[in-house]
Amino acid sequence: MDPKRFLIYSTVFAVMGLSNAVIPILPELAARDHGSVGAFASSLLFSAYFLGALATMLPFGILSDRFGSLRFIGLGILLTAGSGLTMLLSENLWVLLLARFVEGLACGAFFPAAFSTLSEYRNPRRCMGEFTFLLNAGLAAGTLSSGLLAETHLKGAIFIFTFIAFLLILLLLPRYRELTGPDRRGQGATWDRPDVLSDSFKHAFGTINTVLLGRHSRILLLSVLLNGGVGILIAYYPDYSADFLTKAQLGSSISSLYICAMITSILIGRFSIGEGNMVRIGIGFSALGAFLAIQYPFLGFACLGGGSGIAIVGFSLAFARMDIDRGLSMGLFNTTIYAGLSLAPIAAGLFTGTLSLEEIFLANGCILAGAFFLKE
Q: Is residue 120 situated within a structural domain?
């Protein structure tokens, strides 16, 4: 395996592990400095990360096309390490929210650059499957380790993945010249030219407008709906299950989502199935899992994860085939992911005063089921 691919695979595991290390302990983190603040505050702590990613996916995707992907992979590592250290040292809710937002910025820097790089390999289907496998491995490891360590070391999992992020900085040091010098296209000198950057963004946003109004609009909507459904369940399940699941059981149940996504994403990359069929199959299983999770958490999250693992590979291939710049297409793809994960839980939170969490979960399942029947 070449060094850049190893760096990407290692980084996605660390970034995703740290992002989910807070999930089983969201109520405790939200309440430590401000008392009992309820499910909505927990959902804000959950969503702050995704809002940071949402705000930067497209800009960083556009910039990675011009200035080279490695720079933004490195930026993602540095921001991840810094945000993890801040979460370890602070108990203040507002500082934690800011750290989660910066962690999202790291994700926004890393993912478009990583997807863009992998899409250029000789077998992008296999690379996307392996990347998605490790992405979900990190999510599962973060959730499971946090749940298991919560009773003895509340921030134990945060420490583990912050430490891994600092180790990744060591992998960047031998590539200092590549990170700071001109990239292989000789564009390193354009950082200080506002006219070049302005033209890049104007071109990119014109392209995005064409995509939104064209035949690709359906795939964007489906990605938002699927990831929004996943986000609602993950954000509110710690509060929903507080009376019938221990932290270890909660961590195990949510981690089953990512373990099953790991399995399906690595397997689906080996089959000759069109991306459209991958998306349809994945959404079908995800809708079923959303309903099952209401009463059967382990089975429901496992089904939801298996479906999302299939769908994400399909989405990544569909976006990679768009006739636009790779960094831009991957930035757009990841924007739909984080739009769903960040905005759907906040939108659901507006109904927590009038609907029970179980009713919100039922409505969430119905929306996913409707997405399955969305016409071409």
A: yes
Question: Whole-angstrom Cα distance, residue 141 to residue 255?
Answer: 7
67-94 pLDDT, tens digit per residue, is: 788 899 999 999 999 999 999 999 888 8
Give the whole-angstrom CA distance, residue 134 versus residue 132.
5
Query: What distance in Å separates the CA atoms of residue 128 and residue 265, rounded to the nearest whole number?
Result: 8
| Residue 189 pLDDT > 50 | no
Between 375 and 41, name the one with better pLDDT.
Answer: 41
Q: Report the SS3 class of residue 214.
A: coil
Q: How many other C-beta atoms lie within 10 A of the C-beta of residue 248?
A: 16
On whether residue 192 sits in a domain, the answer given is: no
246: region left, alpha or beta (phi > 0 left; psi from -120 to 50 alpha) = beta
Which range of residues forms the domain containing residue 206?
3-181+200-372
Indicate which CATH number applies to the domain containing 339.
1.20.1250.20
CA atoms within 13 A on the CB side of 363: 15
State pTM to two decimals: 0.76
Q: What is the rounded CA–CA span in Å between residue 292 and residue 206?
A: 42
3-state secondary structure of 74: helix
249 contact partners, CB below 8 Å, separation of at least 6: 147, 241, 297
Please report the pLDDT score of residue 33 as a whole number: 53
Give the chain's domain count.
1
The 3 state secondary structure assigned to 322-365 is: CCCCHHHHHHHHHHHHHHHHHHHHHHHHCCCCCCCHHHHHHHHH
Q: Is residue 219 part of a domain?
A: yes
pLDDT given for residue 199 in this prediction: 67
Asked whether residue 23 is assigned to any structural domain, the reply reads yes
Contact (CB, 8 A) for 310 and 282 = yes
* 309-351 pLDDT tens trace: 999 889 888 887 887 776 677 778 878 888 898 889 989 988 9
C-alpha count within 13 angstroms, C-beta hemisphere, residue 40: 10
From residue 277, give the alpha-carbon distance in Å to each of 107, 255, 288, 307, 311: 28, 26, 17, 12, 9
Check whether 295 has a pLDDT greater than 90.
Answer: yes
Token digits of residue 71? 């720079």
Please tell me the distance from the alpha carbon of residue 193 to that of residue 233, in angstroms, as a whole number. 45
